[in-house]
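Quick review question:
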C-alpha cells in the first residue's frame, strides 16, 4: 500500500554482507538433538498416557524417526527402517523391530502423543528463537508482546494409491490442520491435526486459544471475523484483527476519525455494533475502512483504543498474514508433507508433527543466521536454506555413524577428530540462500473442478473416529 498515511518507521539501513560470505550450516543442525531429548519424551508420554505402555518403539524413538523422515524424505518407510537397522545415529534411531511391528505401532499410538511432543519441543525451542522476523512492524512489540497468525489448511491428497485405497476413485485427503504462526519468532506455536478433512475450520481453532498467552494479538482472514470467535477471544484476554466478513450485520455507532492522504487514500475508523443478537450477543468492535482508488480493505478488531493499535499499524500488519500461507507451503512442498507414507490417521499425524518440529528448528536456525549476518530473515529463501540444512544434517549423521563404527572395530579407543566442522558439506555461501526477486507477472492458477471430488482418509479406512484434543 502506498501513501503517507500507510508509512511506518523502519530501522536505519546497515551495510549488507556480500553474496560470497561463507555460511556455516553445522552450527544450526544440532537444534533437534539438543531439544528432542529422551527425558522430555518420557515426561510427555507419562503426562498423556492412560493405559498405553512404553514399548521398544518409544516416543523418543518415534520422534527421532519421524523427524529423520522429514529431513531425509526416503522413498518409503521400509527404506527408512532399513537404514535404522544398520545402526542408530544422532539423526536416526536404531531400529530392531520388524516392518510389521513398526507399522502396527504407527497405527495404534494415538496422535495426541505427538501433538504433546510437538508442543513441549516448541516450548523448549522458543528459548533459542530470536524475535527478528517481521521487522517492519517490530514497534508493535511494546504493546503486543506476541502477534500470532492463524489459519487452517487441508492436507494434500494422497498421491500414491495405497492398498486400502485402490478401489476408491476420489482423491483421498488424510486430514487437515490448524496452525498458529508466531510472527516475530518465525515459528509455529501450535499445530492441531484433525483426521477429518471436512472438520469446520473455525471450530478447530477454538481449542487452540487456551494455549496462547494472554494479551496476544491474533490476525486472521475473514473466516475468523465471527461474533462467536470474538467472544472467545475476549473471554481469554486475547485481541483479534480480522478482515470484515460480508455476512455480518454491522451497525455503525460512532465515527472515531477520518483521514485523507495522497493518491485518493482515505482511512475511516468507526465504533460498530456487530451481530443480529439471534445466535450470540451483539459485540462492540472497531471497524477500520481503507480506500485507495479501487482498492478496498475493511478490518474488524476488538482493540477499541486507537492508541493501542492505530489504523495505519493495523493496515500494515494485515498483509503479513500471508506469512502463514508461506509456512504451509514450506511444510508441504519444502519438507515434503505432500507425500504420506501410511494409510491411517495416527501415522499421518506423526508425519505432520515430525515435519512441524523440523520446520521450527530450521526457522530458529534461519533467524539466528540472519541476526548474525545483519540481514532480514525474510531475505533468506526457505526453499534454498531448508534443503541445505537437511542435507548437512544427514551428512553429519552419516559421518558420526562412520566414526562410531570405526571406533567399535578398534575397541573404542579412537579419539574423535575435529574435522567435521571443516567438511565442505557443512558450508554454503550467502548468495546461494538469498531470495531471488520474482521477475514479471505470476503465472495464473486455474481451478480444477475435479479437486472438489475428495474423501477423508479417516472415513475411507473403516470410518475410524478419533477423539479430538480439547
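Suggested answer, residue by residue:
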Amino acid at each position: 500500500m502506498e501513501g503517507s498515511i500507510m508509512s511506518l518507521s523502519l530501522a536505519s539501513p546497515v551495510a549488507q554482507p556480500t553474496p560470497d560470505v561463507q555460511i556455516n550450516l553445522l552450527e544450526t543442525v544440532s537444534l533437534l538433538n539438543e531439544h528432542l531429548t529422551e527425558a522430555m519424551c518420557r515426561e510427555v508420554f507419562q503426562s498423556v498416557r492412560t493405559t498405553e505402555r512404553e514399548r521398544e518403539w518409544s516416543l523418543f524413538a518415534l520422534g527421532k524417526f519421524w523427524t529423520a523422515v522429514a529431513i531425509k524424505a526416503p522413498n518409503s518407510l521400509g527404506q527408512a527402517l532399513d537404514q535404522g537397522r544398520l545402526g542408530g545415529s544422532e539423526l536416526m534411531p536404531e531400529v530392531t523391530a520388524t516392518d510389521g511391528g513398526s507399522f502396527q505401532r504407527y497405527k495404534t499410538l494415538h496422535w495426541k502423543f505427538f501433538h504433546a511432543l510437538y508442543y513441549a519441543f516448541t516450548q523448549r525451542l522458543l528459548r533459542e528463537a530470536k524475535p527478528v522476523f517481521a521487522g517492519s512492524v517490530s514497534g508493535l512489540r511494546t504493546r503486543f508482546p506476541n502477534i500470532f497468525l492463524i489459519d487452517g489448511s487441508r492436507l494434500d491428497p494422497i498421491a500414491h494409491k495405497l492398498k486400502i485405497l485402490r478401489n476408491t476413485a476420489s482423491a483421498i485427503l488424510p486430514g487437515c490442520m490448524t496452525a498458529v504462526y508466531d510472527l516475530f519468532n518465525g515459528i509455529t506455536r501450535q499445530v492441531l491435526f484433525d483426521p477429518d478433512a471436512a472438520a469446520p475450520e473455525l471450530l478447530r481453532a477454538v481449542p487452540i486459544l487456551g494455549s496462547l498467552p494472554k494479551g496476544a494479538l491474533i490476525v486472521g482472514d475473514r473466516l475468523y471475523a465471527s461474533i462467536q470467535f470474538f467472544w472467545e477471544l475476549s473471554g481469554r484476554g486475547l485481541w483479534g484483527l480480522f478482515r470484515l466478513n460480508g455476512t455480518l450485520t454491522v451497525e455503525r455507532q460512532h465515527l472515531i476519525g477520518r483521514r485523507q492522504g495522497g493518491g485518493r487514500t482515505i482511512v475511516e475508523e468507526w465504533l460498530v455494533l456487530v451481530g443480529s443478537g439471534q445466535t450470540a450477543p451483539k459485540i462492540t468492535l472497531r471497524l477500520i475502512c481503507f480506500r485507495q482508488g479501487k482498492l478496498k480493505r475493511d478490518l474488524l478488531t476488538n482493540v477499541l483504543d486507537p492508541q493501542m493499535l492505530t489504523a495505519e499499524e493495523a493496515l500494515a500488519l494485515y498483509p503479513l498474514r500471508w506469512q502463514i500461507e508461506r509456512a504451509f507451503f514450506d511444510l508441504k512442498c519444502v519438507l515434503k508433507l505432500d507425500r504420506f507414507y501410511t494409510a491411517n490417521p495416527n501415522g499421518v499425524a506423526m508425519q505432520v508433527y515430525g515435519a512441524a518440529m523440523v520446520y521450527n528448528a530450521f526457522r530458529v536456525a534461519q533467524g539466528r543466521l540472519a541476526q548474525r549476518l545483519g540481514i532480514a530473515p525474510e531475505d533468506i529463501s526457505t526453499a534454498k536454506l531448508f534443503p541445505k540444512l537437511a542435507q548437512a544434517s544427514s551428512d553429519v549423521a552419516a559421518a558420526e555413524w562412520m566414526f562410531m563404527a570405526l571406533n567399535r572395530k578398534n575397541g573404542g579407543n579412537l579419539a574423535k577428530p575435529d574435522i567435521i566442522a571443516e567438511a565442505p558439506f557443512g558450508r554454503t555461501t550467502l548468495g546461494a540462500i538469498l531470495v531471488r526477486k520474482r521477475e514479471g507477472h505470476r503465472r495464473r492458477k486455474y481451478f480444477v473442478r475435479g479437486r472438489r471430488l475428495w474423501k477423508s482418509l479417516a472415513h475411507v479406512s473403516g470410518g475410524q473416529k478419533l477423539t479430538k484434543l480439547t
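Why it works: The chain has one domain: 27-392+451-460. Residues 1-14, 463-470 have pLDDT under 50 and may be disordered.
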